[in-house]
Protein 1
Amino acid sequence: MSSSSSQRKVLTLVAALLGWLFDGFEMGLFPLIGQPALKDLLSHAAASDSDVNKWFGATIAVFLVGAASGGVLFGWLGDKMGRVRAMSISILTYAIFTGACGFATEAWQVAALRFVASLGMGGEWSLGVALVNEVWQAKSRSVTAGLIGAAANVGYLLASLVSMIVLGHLTSIQGGLQSIGIPGSAVAYLISHSAWRLLMISGALPALLTFGVVFFVPESEKWKAEHARGATAHWARADLMGVVIGSIAALVIIWAWSPAGIEAGINALGATAITITGLGIALVGYLHPVRKYLQRAVAAGTLSPDHGASIVKFMLFGAALAAVALLGTWGSTQWAPKWVVTLEPDPSKYAKEWTLFWLSVGAIVGTMGAALAAGHFGRRITYAVLCVGSIGASLLLYQCNTSYGGFFLFSTFVAGALTASFYGFFPLYLPELFPTAVRATGQGFAYNFGRIAAAVGGLQTANLMKVFNNSFPKAASCMVGIYVVGMFIVWLGPETKGQALPD
């Protein structure tokens, strides 16, 4: 291997890992600051804890819909204009709009800004995975897939550490900000309510990474070869209207289950009908750009009709796998830092931060282990075993803990290791399902459309809590039953162990 080739591979991996790290950092912020932020923003409305829970779930759901839309949108950009340029735009998007959340004055503004930020986060995953898999050789893909999943969880861990440092040194931070000329009233505004505004503003820092991506990371040679032979010319901007319509349909679903929908008189039956209709519209809309691309590619003779049909089939299969894993995470374990406050309300013990810390440490171990296991034992058996393990780990956390302490943190480590392990599995398996010309869009749809299903399902966590007399452990334990579905559907897909990445 030449030194230039080796340098190119290292630069690509480092840039992508940093992108995922800060992606994870920004995703990890909301579980920590969501409750104090929403209580602050809803204080004028005298909102109850139930209202805060609904807004918390709705904000997470809106984030997931945005990530799904961004996965298709930026995946389209990556297949059309190149992985690197599109990834730069995606990072800039999530950095700026996460930082803007710190200036929100209403709960709905946080949800709206998180939606736009998540467009970039969903896109960054799709583009970075495609780029790294196209640059690194097959024998290295298990390791790089594990690093991809681990990097995002290092970001979660970083979010917990930054939160503890900020909350533990508020007086020093206040003095430091005033010493550089920021008015005392502005400083008080930034650090009030557990400094949630200051922490969100810190999310803008990854924008600096954009410049490194632009100037130092080379474009994928596989993509350039596809571009040279004209395969990327079959993408059309007009097709993105399908993504817009799909996003609107998904957001209407979120609205129907949110406090705003309830206030508008939408009952459970109406919300269910809206959900079924909206999911159908969203599915057709998100698939639209790829289907139109495939029609043009088949007509031009650059793709066979059978190959085109298999691409759509694998997109749907990948979305089903992702929906199981994402719903299991966002419907249960993502709520753990919020839940632990009911077990240990003393903020000086940093229960939320330590919970996220050990979830993240477990996830780092789990993502690396899952990728290596899939590389050694095979993709399908690994996914099925991870589903079984996730059920056991989640029940350990939610049914065997009634107080905050050492065993609770051990349980969070185990739950993090198993339920987050899929995020090391997907960067290995999903790219193997799609050819280069549609890889970013195909895997972006597969992984991120699963987020819409997770968003809809995750909204039911708050509703399940009502059924179980506001018991989050019972609601979360019910949600993890989704892993049973994953144990069976994974066998409907191909086993790609030992196969080269499709051209």
Protein 2
Amino acid sequence: MLGRLVEPGATWPGPLGERSVRNSAAAYACAKRFELEREVLFRRLPNLVGLSVECAEPGSFLTADLGGVPVAVIRQTDGSLRGFVNACRHRAARLLEGCGKLGRTIVCPYHGWTYELDGRLRARPGAELGFDDVAKESLPLHLVAVGEAHGLIFARTHGDAPFTVDAALHGAQEELASYRLGSYCHIETRAQEQPINWKLVIDTFTETYHIPWLHKATIAPHYFFDRWIYDAYGPHGRLIGVRKIVTPEFDKPDPSDRNLLPHATTQYLLLPNAVLCHQIDHVELWRVTPLAVDRTRVSTSLFAPTPPATERERAYWVKNLDVLLGVTNTEDFPAMARIQQNLMSGAVPEVVYGKMEPALVHFHASLDAALARGA
């Protein structure tokens, strides 16, 4: 554990990391480094592509872009998952978009080539004679390695060796399993593109230092910015920010009676591409897709602990997502866009991460270590 919660009355700031770190602006602005990141981090490493509840029923699917490789994950009739390159073997047309539910087959929207859910080519409508010298058995969809556990789905496009989710989580699996994510209900996912480097999206989740200034009129009155909990699980991190209403918990004489979860925003920073967040009464999942050195697709999903029983209850969860994106879209992302412009200008040689930003330091150290191994 790299840090502990600083109780009221302690000297600010805390808990501190071991040291401050300088990072080159090239980490955010260099096109060559960006391509290395897409290859090493987004193709060779397992990436979190979704929660199991997004792809729960046989025939349901979700899609992702991993380092430029289009991926589709499909629930099979036996309950297992299979992952494929999301491209038809005929002319490489995109087969599936977003997420949804299939019938018994996958049908290419370009020429109607039809595949079984397990990727086998079933038919080439109106053209079997035109391809009678190419056996259907030789044209299954290209496989992508997929792992599922604890309500999480990971995929990796590089190589065909299997992997396990537990190994990918580096010790965080026991705690994540306690959330019982497989029982949650997917409410909604919203995607948008931002003119920023993908790492800036993750950066904004790694420290509470910015809250009193950037979020002065929104969440600052409710959250401490100088008290947090931080832990690392291998390359991953967990940062817990706390609301000011947590203070009475420290009046309880028995530490085992203190309950932080209802007063905390618990963020799991899952290298390289995702932030899984438990906030008060629901779970959020942020997934980043690097498109260019200065352009990123951000997908934000909200999950409720149980299916909404009424439209009013559903509206409550949708409003939570509205509020969440209202803050990030009007405060965080505009600030990140201006930062990106400054870094791309060439006039800013470096940024500095302070000791009060241990999750930020660890995130970039983990990236650098993974890139060094991959290179």
Protein 3
Amino acid sequence: MSLRPFRDIKRRKTKKIKVGKVKVGGNAPISVQSMTNTLTTDVKATVKQINELIEVGADIVRVSCPDKESSLSLKDIIKQVNIPIVADIHFHYKRAIEAAESGADCLRFNPGNIGSKERVKEILKAARDYNCSIRIGVNAGSLERKLLEKYKEPCPEALVESAANNIKLLEDENFFNFKISVKSSDVFLTTKAYRLLSKAYDYPLHLGITEAGSLKSGSVKSSIGMGMLLMEGIGDTIRVSLSADPVEEIKIGYEILKSLNLRHRGVNIISCPSCARQAFPVIDTVKILEEKLSHIKEPITLSIIGCVVNGPGEASQTQVGLTGGGKGSHMMYISGLPHHKVAGDKIIQEVVSLVENKSKEFKSN
């Protein structure tokens, strides 16, 4: 019996690069990223936040380097964490060089904003010397003046032309260890730009809807925009940009990938919206279970359905399932098959126990 069969999305073929120990592009898993919002000079707070991101599954973390003190602080930060660190550089080329020297695994900048070609060459030399990859980060909010004059406003063609100009700068120097992003806060602009870019180049793409908004609205925008692209096979690494705790960015990123069967981590709960047929309080039960199962890292499917209309069908496709029954007696399913009944006041502890047992099975196999 097949539980939640994998529905294959044919991913676009891209070159593979390495960001520290993490492979990006090619056949590598789509990596999930976030960015710290602490002052980089506050090493203790930044390390704490990076470790919180690691705990929920971050593959790569970006750290802002707006000044010399920040780029030099990377050295102390990197010593204390076990994850690739991307240095976010805006305009000053020396910050990129300092970040590379401090041990950054990747430099994120827009070569067109750095200034002269000579300065870009100096950054590329540092990247080579210290084995750094680069992300060309094109953003609709900071397009070059010449492109704004040409196109009158940010548009997909302007973002792609900016990326093309910057790609040429790197290719002319025989530097190919890079990935690209063309972000905007507008879903339509962003998706069209990525589609155009993916047709023109085979470099790995970093996906994101930049400045997407709050936890709720930003998650929706990011899911729609990145979801469409991922379904088309476009995208090698993602960041959900939210005005929220960065930990939430990682959680939502995994939810997007799980929903498309592109990557699995933790418990995937299939639950009903509840109605008058529910035989137990579904909404409260799911809320409690999400919290109590948040420590599970292994990919496990769990169905929580309040009645026998859809419950057995959903449970037959999950590793652990619960279907509401009559007189306070509910059916538990294991590996898609009816297994035993459980009383209403024992639901939480029983489900947690069964999921934890499944987690142990994964670890032992």
